[in-house]
């Protein structure tokens, strides 16, 4: 996996951890989860394009 794809994967996993922690602490936020889904789709796209 190239460096940029690895960086995006780490950012996506970190975003998932942060979104989950935010949801547990303060309640659900639809925009937060929507943003994470968009980041996840971008990451999948980068991984497939670089693969």
UniProtKB/TrEMBL annotation:
Top-rank taxon: Bacteria
* Keywords tagged on the record: Membrane, Transmembrane, Transmembrane helix
Q: Where are the transmembrane segments?
A: 31-49
Q: What is this protein called?
A: Integral membrane protein
**Species of the source:** Streptomyces malaysiensis
């Amino acid at each position: 996996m190239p460096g940029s794809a690895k960086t995006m994967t780490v950012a996506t996993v970190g975003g998932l951890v942060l979104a989950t922690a935010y949801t547990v602490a303060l309640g659900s936020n639809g925009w937060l989860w929507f943003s994470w889904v968009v980041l996840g789709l971008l990451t999948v796209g980068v991984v497939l394009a670089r693969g």
